[in-house]
Please model this.
Amino acid sequence: MNKNGILVVVSGFSGVGKGTLMKRLTEKYRQYALSVSATTRAPREGEEDGREYFFKSREEFERMIRENRLIEYASYCGNYYGTPREYVEEQMAKGRDVILEIEAQGAYKVKQQYPDTLLLFVMPPDAKTLVERLSGRGTESQEVIESRLTRALEESQMAEKYEYMVINEDLEEGVEKIRSLIEAQRDKIGRNLAFVQEIRTQLETLLKKGE
Amino acid sequence: MNKNGILVVVSGFSGVGKGTLMKRLTEKYRQYALSVSATTRAPREGEEDGREYFFKSREEFERMIRENRLIEYASYCGNYYGTPREYVEEQMAKGRDVILEIEAQGAYKVKQQYPDTLLLFVMPPDAKTLVERLSGRGTESQEVIESRLTRALEESQMAEKYEYMVINEDLEEGVEKIRSLIEAQRDKIGRNLAFVQEIRTQLETLLKKGE
Model:
């Protein structure tokens, strides 16, 4: 059996509730490790290095890029954001499943490098719910909400390239759904070729004995 | 949401316990319909037309082939065996998931015609268990057991082309595993493109209102 962990990318529109889903999932099931991104943006009040982000200087981040120590990275509002390779590979080698909460562009880059990656896209039950959640935060102006919806419209094009869709209507249901999609991934034939080979060897041995 | 049922092919070595798994699965979860094959072989004591098989004359069967009314068929020990298309499509249209218990050659033909088909391969926990189950039937000679093992060795090559593997160690666990693999299939993006499109339309409408 393949004891390596599974790599999972979770994407979805801003406001769809990915963060809450991931928090609950990783609290409920400790075998899932949420990857921590590296960034060059300054830490905000209450943020801790290695918890919300690994905070890096521009020089450090660019060295990580050059040394291929990021699985994917992007530049956003003048700051870099990326996924450190070391943590992901360490956790997977230990048998933990690693979840990356990243955007579609990054998702494709991850899939190219780790073809067994499970790509999940979180959807709202409908667009109205998304608007309510964005407005419900209370912190966003009408303008910001509209720019988020425009972005969601763009991202919905990307959704089609994902493998599975999870509708985030009820938190616990969403968590269980994601869990069962990850568990199903463990049974992929491609992950179990060593087991198939082992059965074959056993059959050959039994047939030789029978001769 | 795509309300159509899912087509599932279940294959596995003779003696691996597919039949028992399928019986339990379809008894426990009534939304799964087990497809009944057509055959030209004579009914055995206690077999009923439409339950174990649809019993057909050679002429009837060959007409079904010509009229493309079989999804797949094969000839085995001088008799035809095949999967009638009508039952499968009717059940799927009603939203029931249809399970075909067929061999690898047939599995590929089904997948060609219905690309969303889920291909499952049932494996024994080890080769020794397979031999014990084959011997345990008590009805098989050593010779028959060996020919089954030789066939299993051939089929293990085919297993690699399946999508998922289910190890049949504990009946209830196996049933639940198959169930969760079928359920996961419902969340495939490809089955939910109409929903993604609906969200997009809703987003566009909301953005137009906001202007």
User: Anything to note?
Assistant: Residues 57 and 97 of chain A are 29 Å apart (CA to CA). The longest strand of chain A covers residues 70-76. Chain A has a mean pLDDT of 93.
